Amino acid sequence: GAPFDVEHIRKDFPALHQSVNGHRLVWLDNAATTHKPQSVIDATSEFYARHNSNIHRAAHTLAARSTDLFEGGREKTRRFLNAPSKDDIVFLRGTTEAINLVANSYGRANIGPGDEIIVSTIEHHANIVPWQLLAQQTGATIRVIPVDDRGDIIFEQYATLLSGRTKIVSVTHVANALGTVNPIQEIIALAHAYGVPVLVDAAQSTPHIPIDVQALDADFLVFSGHKVFGPTGIGALYGKKHLLEAMPPWQGGGHMIEDVTFAKTVYKGAPEKFEAGTPDIAGAVGLGAALDYLESVGLPAISAYEHDLLEYAEGGLAEIKGLRLIGTARHKASVMSFTIDGLKNETVAHHLDAHGIAVRSGHHCALPALRRFGVDQSVRASLAFYNTREDVDVFLAVLRTLPRH
Ligand code: PMP
């Protein structure tokens, strides 16, 4: 194919072209959130400037336009995930709200005392806490797939956790604190051998890896707009039709009903049943623009480019004195989590920031993952397809100048 033209791509991202603390901004905090191409900013502002109506198609002209634009975002999301129908796509605030929806709706209807929920050690808190809340309310138990010293899940241990008591497996595709790419297809296939549905947390994989929910045979898959170069406040749940149809609503309100009397409410079908209240209409439009952008660059090309960049960056990190890379899984995407002997993570992050380089220091909302490696914080640098070798070189050079005692 054509060479990956990163300089051309960077021109589309206005936020990348600024100086921070007197230096060119180097954005290596992509696992937390991503910058937006101009097309996303334009689609969002044009929505407010020209269309802006609540979604009730029949009422008037702007309402029809806004409804079509909102539903257009849903169709783009369907295509991005290769879902069979756009009715299988529920718009929510993001990954967190999507997992909470499944835990509260599917979970309460299907999970009871003595039942088991399987997650892994390397989940984001968003894929731990909703299940814990559910377990406390229902008397179910959480079982945890362990990881080895590299941060790969121990598949044989996963196999031993599955049983007739298992009611759902909810695992991440890419781990946000370590970068591990889980063997999600195998995880799903084995769960299905036990008749158990799987929720895939694709918050960290959607920016890096092509997703096909039908090829994966995922039962539920969730992601956030802001991590795929779209707006904050919007994300999606994909669910298999028969599962969504059987699930009760979670939140109640406008937009999700056919009829309401004080005796009884009749709900709409999926996805409206799960979209109570006025949704983030401009967010859905912006998300659609972001997915169009990703498609125009091409996720297979993005994956290949980022794979090289990550190898290059990790090669450089290996030469930094006292640096310990946390998470060296066989397959990784985007994330480099590390500590440096004798230095606080905060100090490292501030030193980088003083040179215009944005990384995150802290627990990355994945405390059990970090504690598995004997720490409860790290510095995390995370790549996107608009990062360059030059970004990595600057990052490594600044790490080499860290004041040591
Ligand atoms: N899961 C993973 C793997 C994540 O990386 C994140 C975001 N850091 C979330 C869930 C939560 O996403 P959000 O905050 O957008 O709801």
TrEMBL record:
GO terms for biological process: cysteine metabolic process. Its EC number is 2.8.1.7. Its cofactor is pyridoxal 5'-phosphate. The keyword Transferase applies. Residues 26-395 form the Aminotransferase class V domain. The keyword Chaperone does not apply. It is an enzyme of class 2 (transferase). Keywords: Lyase, Pyridoxal phosphate, Transferase. It catalyses: (sulfur carrier)-H + L-cysteine = (sulfur carrier)-SH + L-alanine. GO terms for molecular function: cysteine desulfurase activity; lyase activity; pyridoxal phosphate binding. Belongs to the class-V pyridoxal-phosphate-dependent aminotransferase family. Csd subfamily. This is cysteine desulfurase. It comes from Methylorubrum rhodinum.
